[in-house]
Give the backbone structure.
Amino acid sequence: MCSLALFPPPLPSGQTTLCESNNELLRCAVLLEQMSCSYIYQLMSFYINSPLSCAVVVPKWLSVSSGCTLALLRWFSSFHGSLFPHLTVTIHLIIRCFDMLAEFSQVLNWSDCVVRAFAWHPHTDKFAVALLDDSIKIYNPKSATTPTLKHRLQRSVAAVQWKPLCATALAVACQNCLLVWHVDPCSLSTRPSSGCAQVLSHPGHSPITSIAWSPSGSLLVSASPMDTAMMVWDVASESGVPLQRVGGGGVTFLSWSPDGSHVLASTPSALFRVWETRMWTCERWPCVKGRCQSGCWSPDGSRLLFTVQGETVIYALTFTDTPGSQAAAVVADLSETTFNTPDGDIIVGGEIQSLAWDPTGERLAVLLKGDPQAADRPAIIAVFKTRTNPIFELLPCGFVQGEPGTEPRLMQFHPNFQHGALLTVCWSSGRITHMPFYFLSAGVPHFGLSGSPSLPRPQERPADFAKQSLFTELMS
Amino acid sequence: ETRTTFNRGPQRSFECMWRDMGNAVASIAWAVLLLPPITAVFVIISRFSLLHPIQAVSECLSFLTSASAIFSFILLCGVIIMVGFLNLEYYTVIPTIACSKIALLGQLLHPRQFVNSLGHCIMGIIVAWCCAITVGGRYETIADPCAQGDGSPQMCLNEYHLILLLAGAFVGFSHSLLGVIYNMNYVSFHTVQQYKYLRFKGSLSLVLKCSATQALYSVRNYIVVYFFLGKWSLSVHPLDSIAGLLDLSLLYHLWISASFLLFTWHLTLLLFRVFVTEVYSFPVQSSFTEDAHQCLPTVLTDKQPMILKFLALLDLALLSQHSPSRRSEVFSLSQPGGHPHNWNAISKECLSLLADLTQRLIAYHDTVATNGRAKSLSTGSERKTSSESSGMFPRPTLLMKTPASVFARSIVGCPQSPLTAPFTPDLDSPFASPALRRLTAPMDQCSPWFGTVQSPHIMRRVPKLWSTSTGEKSQALFADSQAHIWALEGLSYLVQSSFSEDQFGVVQTALPSILSCMLGLQEAVDRHFKLPHASSKPVRSASSMGDSTHKTLRFALRATLKTSIYRITTTFGNHLNAVKMSAEHRKRLQQFLEYKE
């Protein structure tokens, strides 16, 4: 079993992780925008249209002002009905919703995080970012316009996700409803009207903390910690089917397996369910200690990794065709480990905020919560290599660190990066960075020498594809 | 092959009828089984009194074991069985959409509907009588002894009993009318597949809510009607006054009885829907020739009964998505001969369905472009030839329009509906006379036939009644689109999995036609949605037993179509450049390859 003690030590202060190449994580001593190292730049920029140019910097005042508002609300509610009882109830409700979203979100410190949610498009190089001011921006390297989505119902965005097998639809989990935006990629408009958004709501189904599209793009599931039913939506006809099960007291986090066969649904109590999506029946998985905090599926949908609140390990569950009772196995131990660095001791490890598995199934990123009060216990991303043969195991890869004074809040892998895996990290500063991991995937046939792939030349690729032909002419 | 299928027609429809029947009987049996607990709850609610709870409970128990209770329970069972058979007789998988007020009126005044309403009235009275027995007290008998002016005892009319009976008739009648207006006989298929018990359990609370609210509105309307019309000279306690009708206990009992009546009927309907739409797995191929007619390719190509065709399409959509072993049967070659008969039959049928919709949309668009004038005839004949050329055999018009048996609906309702597009008269029928056709083909009420036979003057004078609203026309165009949605899903999933599973390359040969068919449909759908009102969302009616799925079918079709094309383009990617297609389709496909649609 892998543990953090096997990891290479974290970088000294002032250095940032850049990418993985030739089986090791490269670092850079300069800030990203000042980067002049030509080798590194070459390495980075062959990725289509240089994703670095997409880095978003969100103004700091936004984060500060929102924090102030919340503090003001809390202070106001402390008068406890002595002044305006009816108002207090409303404020309590708002704060309760807010706390709930912060509690169950996959984002670390959701309430003061400038980037509330992030989503890569499953097929193209564009992504959506939900910001603290409840607006959503869509960045597309191939387009000069950056559409901003605003809607009066778009409050406290907890999650966004693009619809698979579709270029336009973006689902947004809001406080009181679910919005599905239809953003025409060819449109030049920077402010799509609210008419472009479908509103899906169901009584009692709010606040929505998690959503998941089926990989086939036909269904959308949404979850609310206040509702014991999980909603399965047919978005086009705007009809939803509640799937109700007793126990657990709500649904907090959803994750649809990439092969479409299962959905993980965790509850606020020490119980999670795994639904099979053909007849929508579920398996109950009680946990010993706390609720299931996060989970992710292997690309073939046969293995589920998950973490439990209050524990510092990663569990694995295997789903095979043969049913039968089984128990989750511990595959990694992330308990606190002290590293000696030039800047002093750093303690890494502890509770896990979220997990992300890259689409090739070779890299697993784990966002560790750390302790915001202690300077020597930073939130950090630990990256593992995963291996399925002969047995499933996690191997250490390294830590991903950002600029000094920033901590990672949210991460996601690019769904179809050609040369390995691309991890996108949203930092507490509002910066979004993309971190490539160059490796040859075992699942994909490849030619050439072992080690990192040679740097591809983008201009040659279309020609190669055009020469290949799947079809033979039919002679009759 | 087609010929043998055609010859097997009567035998097939007979078998299907039995399958239909089996499901219906099972659903009715469950409804009857659920009746005792529901009745017990009703007895308790209707007789319970807060002041003497123990006495009320013991009264309830003694009533439940009495002979009159058992007799009324048997009557209720009879009513449930009758309701179940009416459901079976009147249900349809393709909704009848009235495009104008007058068409709706036509539906309401149709003789078939009249029989339905009459049946529901009578059953309503029976249920209300049972309720009167159950509630007891002043409601129990129709005649009360009363003293005349000269002191001699005489029997007078008990208006409490009567008001309950008439309420039953009224609620039954309004239930039947609302059934037409809200398309309650339309059985829709769910996107989310669930086991029967879970689907039933999930909808139960909704049914209860619907019944209670509909009962409330019905009773309100009934009270108003009764206030104006309920004058009985023989009554002891005349109730047609405001004071008489505002008796809270009376209102409560009326509402409870109406709720009970509607709940049992709605429950029967719910069970029927759950059972009839249950997924059925057809064998893809059979080693015995006598079972060949039960196999998926054969059932798919059959026109009737419609429910079976729908179930086959649903099964196709599911197998193409979930079942590798059954997919391999679809891609397999025949022994001996080595022909991909299964794939050919399936793809041909799906493509002809899609081509039919494309033609329908183009024809409609042309009609709109020429302001709906005189174009219908020519498009009608055009479409006819196209449907024949696409390999479908002519429809047995005579057979389907003869109400041969009680279960003839499964034969009557089907083939005319999707193919006699709602706007073009089907003149190949031997019943060419308009009057007869009006009686035999309720589906045609959407046709501009209403407009064309009338003089333009009349049309101008009563525009509200005759004119059709575009949104509803659009709904009617896509009324059977559930079939197209499954065809699209089935085809696209099969094509997707053929990339890795199709050993003999049987799918590749059809890929150009599949792509051009989908892209052609995409173009037609895009054009249709540019029409005014076509993309306006319908208003949702939240609490009603009627199914409003048909109102959004066109949106579902549009989304599925896009997803299906994307499914193919993401799987095959640039390999599609090697597929031969027209320049226009190529351009459209390129949009999909670049994720710009």
Summary: The mean pLDDT of chain A is 81. Helices of chain A lie at 38-45, 60-77, 85-104, 461-467. Chain A touches chain B through 36 residues (CB under 8 Å). DSSP finds four helices and 32 strands in chain A.
